[in-house]
User: Fold Protein-methionine-sulfoxide reductase catalytic subunit MsrP from Thalassospira mesophila.
Amino acid sequence: MLIKRKRGWELPESAATPEAIYRNRRNFIKGITAGTLGAAAATLPAGRAFAQAAAPNADLYPAKHNDAYTVDRAITPKAKATTYNNFYEFGSHKFISDAAQAMKITPWTVQIDGMVEKPIEMDFDDLVRKMPLEERVYRFRCVEAWAMTVPWTGFPMKALVDFAKPTSGAKYIQMQTAEQKDTMPGLKQFWYPWPYTEGLTMAEATNELTMIATGLYGEPLPKQNGAPLRLVTPWKYGFKNIKSIVKFTFTDKRPVGYWESLADSEYGFWANVNPKVPHPRWSQAQERLLSNGDEVPTQLFNGYGDYVADIYKGMDGEKLYM
Ligand SMILES: Nc1nc2c(c(=O)[nH]1)N[C@H]1C(S)=C(S)[C@@H](COP(=O)(O)O)O[C@H]1N2
Ligand SMILES: [Mo]
Assistant:
């Protein structure tokens, strides 16, 4: 018998619940539903928002929660984080979650090429089963000064880099989003530099915080959030977090990302969060929480300086914060 039970973040009071309490409740809920959740994820009742009826990797969720990354902020309700999105392939506004359901995510081929021992082409479902999945709660800060706090499921990008076996000359990784002309109306807006791409240095990609997310709120990633795999770099502005990735290219040249090629004075390569460095058109000192609309102070590196500040030592000439 399958009974749909609410997860911790679906309970309305989670909007005001500190993370530690949320987690305890979640473990409790997990305990009483052990054994039913995997099956439930594969047979979600019809009519449920954004159900991914037959995600081939649904059996991998929920993954083990990693307690090492704690956040002193309430988890953003799932209904907010999955209906207020930025995904220009489906439109240049925030309400693309319905349109994104048209994206085809099975099969999904992931390519790894460039400066690697041997190029790899692999189905996402095979790839994800080789990677160590876990759940982590991170803050997320968009360059437009809104923020959320969400439980990602995914694997450290370092595991993918090790799997790819880059050659010694590789200095950067460029990532590319799918181009599905038949499902992505945004691609018709020819003045945008499709396909969406982004890049990281090897040090950034292999930092312990950097994740390739494949899930959100204990389930496979919703399409609007970048299914089936997207980047998560919580100390950088949201636009670095490229969605629906089809290709990882190892290179010795610094890649120019989608937003950087549109307006390099507004969106740079590094894009590290810094409340003291305003965007040319607005302040970055504060951020608006998606959960309740509160304005709260923004933190340097979005609060993750202990993990990442060392990467940028001695790079003073670079535009690190834009
Ligand atoms: N392919 C692609 N990836 C993308 C974007 C996009 O338009 N296309 N928008 C970026 C921006 S600006 C943000 S803030 C985040 C939003 O992620 P979310 O919708 O999961 O909150 O996705 C990023 N990744
Ligand atoms: Mo963004």
The chain is about 15% helix and 20% strand.
